[in-house]
Amino acid sequence: MYKSLFGRYKYFSQRCPLSELRSLLLTIPLSTIDFNNQFIKDALTTVHCSDLFQWINNTFGQSMLSKRKILFSS
């Protein structure tokens, strides 16, 4: 059905209201994994949301949506 990982990403991102790549970039490798209960449990117990948000902010910076909110709120 999909010719590439980016094809899978494009299919997934079509359902998202925002077209920014930012943290959705992390969904690309996830499309290659067969999920099971143990995999999900391990992921939820080893990765902290605060660490993920910090990595996203350090790597990608401020999102276009947050920039728009700041610009139009004043």
Your description of this structure?
It is flat, with a radius of gyration of 15 Å. The chain has helices spanning 5-13, 27-30, 37-46, 49-60, 64-73. Helix content is 61%, strand content 0%. It is mostly helical and 74 residues long.
Number of distinct beta strands: 0
Number of helices: 5
What shape does the CA trace take? flat
What is the first-to-last residue Cα distance?
A: 46 Å
Whole-number average pLDDT? 78
Percent of residues in helices: 55-70%
Describe the structure concisely.
This protein is an all-alpha fold. It has helices spanning 5-13, 27-30, 37-46, 49-60, 64-73. The chain is flat.
Keywords:
mainly alpha; 5 helices; 0% strand
Write the layout of secondary structure elements.
Blueprint lengths: L4 H9 L13 H4 L6 H10 L2 H12 L3 H10 L1
